[in-house]
Write a structure and sequence with these properties.
There is one protein chain. Helix 11 (about 330-350) packs across helix 12, helix 22 runs parallel beside helix 24 (about 720-730) and helix 23 (about 660-680) crosses helix 24 (about 720-730). The strands form 12 sheets. The protein has a 3-stranded parallel beta sheet. Strands 16-21-22 form a 3-stranded antiparallel beta sheet. Strands 1-2 form a two-stranded antiparallel ribbon. The protein is globular and about 80 Å long. The protein is mainly α. Among the domains are: about 20-95, no CATH class; about 100-195, no CATH class; about 560-735, Glycosyltransferase, CATH 1.50.10. Its EC number is 3.2.1.28. One of its GO terms (biological process) is trehalose catabolic process.
């Protein structure tokens, strides 16, 4: 076959050359090896003469390698001048996808792990953080070069990511892994969200049944000399007692003790006596296929625990966790926890602080109705959805009457409710020395040792009215969930607090709504959920609950609202006055909907500035907390600490009243602080934060310290409600804000970047290419401030001078060296953003 040579295309400016992809291809006969080699070299080394480039070769051979495809970007397509005039299109530039493909590293696990820990982990805690003094640098060989080509991995964040990935590989028993650059370079917001969804939730998930009751039955807070796994089963669940007894007989080696619970599990003397043999309380189970012997078999419903030393089903922790679980489509877990709460109310009389025997007299802030409604909204299509909501509503009604509207928690004179847990003696779940400073003087007074006095006091052998009053309030503080705080110390049992009464207002409005919209205006109460004051079969109607809500709202405004300060205060039912303690729980009134629109405006405009700090909302004001000293130490629910529940409820409350921008700002502050600690401290996510400390917010010097930071190599759980708060916060933020978080911009930096006077204009478009260069090929690996992109912190700068001999002086564009902020900036370039120096990093096309 012969080919007719095609004429060269016209070189006229208006005539475009034909696109190679549009030309027809044909097969050609073989020709000499010399010509084939010559043509192959021309193809791959691009050494053909420029003036002959328009000619088609007379002969072709099959392509020996895959064709390299290119793409182009016209900057003129991005923006126009402000005056509307078009500017001349610049020459387009192309990228070789073969050359720009993602790097992969072949990493020998043990060798590399030892190398980075020996050199980087200078404080020997098996973490790489900004407090380590190592060089923050390693050189890894790429997979496609068989390790010949080396690339640098630098900065604290990227080195800690490498440590985490190697730790995972070691846990799996892998000797060598292929690690992608994208995993090391992963945007910190995306990385944390991924870890929460794919790892943290599953690692915090528990299940109580025969497969693990021996393990979960053990209690780290059991201070007895000979602890053993023990489970208490309520009288109303005989099938569970039979099941666990069978498990104990089949596995005598686990030494499981299966015990019937008393008919009156809230009796103070009975609960006190159980402290000598504490145990786990049974939870809801589901029937599964019978055993081979025909015996009934059961499986525990999975639930999520807070984490750290808290490994049981906790009350309000579970509600907060459910908010994140639902967003992550883990609705079944949230549904299970609602079922567990209904089981607890049916058999134990209340939602417990946690499912341990020493919590039988103590509950926690009530969130059941809102939790059930959120789950129901996601499972309406399921055949059991309506029954699920009915049972949850019945349980909430029983809890409302028997717990919150009955003595000792209900104060008839004010019409408000209090945290006022029953119990005798010293709370057994605390560390053995927790109350030593309180009890030692009394032990000395009675000429007893510390342990002897505790036992004598618990069993009424000695009488100390002052101690009785102290522990009455201490139990109330623990029941409130805010243990501990100077807001509640020595007064908690007498306080009708804003947070509790806001929750009860929400119960009242939710129950009215559910009965009206889901059950045709009436709900019959069966015997299993009948309150003490009623007979089975009575009917609840919406108007009853609407009236109760209106009455509570009126009472809260009368007794708790202070017009001068524009906020709600706790009400002392003993002194008949407001406490005046400025607490962030004032915003629970917004979440519950109890505040009027005028009150909401005052709360946001006048009260909010008292609590808003760099990391979000602080628990209380420094003024209300008072001075701190050795004799008056920090309390973890006071200034300067902030907690996830306070953030979440405030965000949702402000959104409910239309203060969207305030909610977004607060969510941004909190999520930035969590992200910053995550980046700087090896992926740490903890129970609570010092929201006033921008550098080490996870360090809490109060009481038992923090939970969630004691891990080796990599984080595995985070902490339940902080995990949820991060996901809820991201769900509130818009895309631009999430990019700001990924760049580690503080709220102030982000706000300035988004200010209208700094909006991007076409005058910046011509500088995009120049702006890209210093960030795609940065000369300095670590960044700490947007004012100086590319300049290291003092700490990092110190170690740049100490880098190993032969280390690269700059980091290649495709290496793992870019700081999260730099990586985010580079990624944003083609979305219409410009340089930090133009203060408009977060402007997006189409926003």
């Amino acid at each position: 076959m012969s080919l007719q040579k095609s004429a060269p295309p016209s070189l006229h400016p208006q005539s475009a050359p034909p696109h190679l992809d549009d030309q027809k291809t044909e097969s050609f006969p073989a020709y000499s090896e010399e010509k084939a080699a010559e043509h192959h070299a021309a193809q791959h080394h691009d050494q053909r003469p420029l003036h002959d480039s328009h000619k088609r070769p007379e002969f072709h051979t099959a392509r020996s390698t895959e064709k390299v495809r290119t793409f182009s970007l016209l900057l003129s397509n991005l923006r126009k001048h402000e005056d509307g005039a078009k500017w001349a299109p610049p020459r387009r530039f192309s990228a070789d996808l073969e050359r720009s493909r993602e790097l992969e590293f072949e990493v020998h696990v043990e060798e590399t792990l030892k190398q980075i820990l020996d050199r980087e982990d200078t404080d020997k805690n098996i973490q790489i953080t900004i407090e380590d003094k190592g060089p923050k640098w390693i050189n890894l060989g790429t997979l496609h070069s068989d390790g010949y080509v080396k690339h640098d991995i630098r900065t604290t964040y990227h080195m800690s990511n490498l440590l985490q990935e190697l730790t995972i590989a070691k846990e799996k028993g892998l000797k060598c892994i292929i690690l992608s650059e994208s995993r090391i370079n992963e945007n910190p917001v995306d990385r944390l969200a991924r870890l929460i969804k794919d790892e943290f939730w599953s690692n915090l998930t528990r299940q109580i049944d025969g497969g693990n009751v021996a393990k979960v039955g053990l209690d780290t807070k059991d201070w007895n000399e000979h602890p053993r796994p023990r489970i208490y089963v309520p009288r109303g669940a005989p099938e569970q007692h039979e099941y666990y007894t069978r498990i104990a007989h089949e596995h005598p080696e686990v030494n499981l003790d299966v015990v019937w619970l008393s008919e009156d599990p809230s009796n103070e003397e009975y609960v006190r006596d159980l402290n000598d043999a504490p145990g786990l309380l049974a939870l809801e189970m589901e029937r599964v296929k019978d055993t081979k012997k025909g015996e009934p078999d059961f499986k525990g419903l999975k639930f999520v625990v807070p984490g750290g030393r808290f490994n049981e089903l906790y009350g309000w922790d579970s509600y907060m966790e459910s908010l994140g679980l639902i967003i992550h489509d883990k609705v079944t877990l949230a549904k299970n926890m609602v079922k567990h709460f209904c089981f607890c109310i049916r058999h134990y009389g209340k939602i417990l602080n946690a499912n341990r025997t020493y919590y039988l007299c103590r509950t926690q802030p009530p969130f059941l109705t809102d939790m059930a409604l959120r789950v129901y909204s996601r499972i309406k299509h399921q055949p059991d959805a309506k029954e699920f909501l009915r049972v949850a509503t019945l349980a909430a009604i029983k809890e409302y009457y028997n717990v919150w509207m009955s003595a000792p928690r209900y104060d008839a004179e004010s019409g408000l409710s209090r945290y006022r847990a029953q119990g005798l003696g010293v709370p057994p779940e605390t560390e053995a020395s927790h109350f030593e400073h309180v009890l030692s003087p009394y032990a000395k007074k009675h000429n007893m040792s510390y342990k002897e006095f505790i036992r004598a006091y618990n069993f009424g052998k000695v009488h100390e009215p002052e101690l009785d009053n102290f522990f009455l309030h201490d139990r109330a503080v623990r029941e409130s969930g805010h243990d501990t705080s100077y807001r509640l110390e020595n007064v908690a049992a007498d306080l009708a607090v804003v947070d509790l009464n806001s929750c009860l207002y929400k119960y009242e409005t939710d129950i009215a709504h559910i009965i009206e919209t889901e059950f045709d205006g009436h709900l019959t109460i069966p015997s299993g959920f009948c309150a003490k004051r009623y007979a089975p079969g009575y009917v609840e109607i919406p108007s009853t609950w609407t009236q109760r809500a209106a009455q509570r709202k009126e009472t809260m405004t009368k007794l708790m609202w202070d017009e001068k300060t524009g906020m709600f205060f706790d009400y002392d039912t003993h002194l008949k006055k407001q406490t005046g303690y400025e607490s962030v729980t004032t915003f629970w009134s917004l979440w519950a909907g109890v505040a009027t629109q005028e009150q909401a405006h005052a709360l946001v405009k006048r009260a909010l500035p008292l609590f808003e700090v760099g990391g979000g909302l602080v628990s209380g004001t420094e003024k209300s907390r008072g001075s701190i000293s050795l004799s008056r130490p920090n309390r973890q629910w006071d200034y300067p600490f902030g907690w996830a529940p306070q953030q979440i409820l405030a965000w949702h409350g402000m959104l409910k009243y239309g203060y969207e921008q305030d909610a977004k700002r607060l969510a941004y502050r909190w999520c930035h602080m969590v992200t910053r600690a995550f980046v700087d401290f090896n992926g740490v996510v903890v129970e609570k934060y010092n929201v006033t400390d921008p550098k080490r917010p996870h360090i809490v010097a109060a009481e038992y310290g923090n939970q969630g930071s004691d891990f080796k190599g990599r984080p595995t759980e985070g902490f339940g409600w902080v995990n949820a708060s991060y996901i809820v916060g991201l769900n509130i933020l818009d895309r631009s804000m999430r990019r700001g978080l990924g760049a580690l911009a503080t709220w102030e930096e982000y706000r300035n970047a988004k200010a209208p006077k700094h909006r991007a204009s076409s005058t910046y478009a011509t500088k995009i290419v120049e702006d890209l260069k210093p960030h795609l090929v940065p000369t300095i690996p670590e960044v700490v401030s947007p004012a100086a992109i590319g300049s290291p912190s003092g700490h990092e700068q110190e170690h740049r001078t100490d880098q190993p001999h032969g280390a690269a002086s700059h980091v290649p564009a495709t290496s793992g060296a870019a700081h999260p902020r730099q990586a985010a900036l580079a990624a944003m370039r083609f979305d219409g953003a410009v340089d930090w120096r133009h203060q408009n990093v977060f402007t997006e096309v189409g926003e």
